[in-house]
Amino acid sequence: MGAVREGLPEGRYGRSGDERADRRLRLVGAVLGAGFVAMIAWFGYDYVSGQRISAEIIKFDVTAEEHVQVHLEVRKDGDAQGYCTLRSRAEDGSEVGRRDVRFDMPETRVDQVVTVRTTAKATSAELVGCTADDGPKR
Question: Which pLDDT score, from 0 to 100, does residue 5 have?
Fold first, then answer.
């Protein structure tokens, strides 16, 4: 009676086709993954460097039925001129106020409290976006 083996003897017939395919698949996956990470980094850098004016709302305060005070912090290039658009919404989500705030001063960082007039009681204030006068730098 002979002994029955469950597989081929190791090292006798070389590497199997599955191992070669696995190695090739890992290599292709690593190259594609690195390319994807590089593409995301490029898009992020391009977006950030293309912004000549950016801003954020530090806080807002609904001080009355007809207006909201918004503390806005703006960062911009020294020579950039433009505006930021703010809007205010009611509890049901409808827009009740909108205001464009111009920034023509030479400072690179501006803190400003602005008042947005509303047509009804507001529950929030949000920054829609900022635009430089000469358009986005690309």
Answer: 64
Tokens describing residue 70? 């918004």
Q: Confirm whether pTM is higher than 0.85.
A: no
Q: Which residue has the tokens 């809007």?
A: 87
pLDDT digits (tens, 9 = 90+) for 12-52: 666 666 777 788 889 999 999 999 999 999 888 777 666 67
Give yes or no for a contact between 99 and 69, defined as CB atoms under 8 angstroms apart.
no
Q: What is the DSSP string of the chain?
A: -PPPPSSPPTTTS---HHHHHHHHHHHHHHHHHHHHHHHHHHHHHHHHHT-SEEEEEEEEEEEETTEEEEEEEEEE-TT--EEEEEEEE-TTS-EEEEEEEEE-SS-SEEEEEEEEE-SS--SEEEEEEEEETT----
Alpha carbons within 13 angstroms on the beta-carbon side of residue 48 total 6
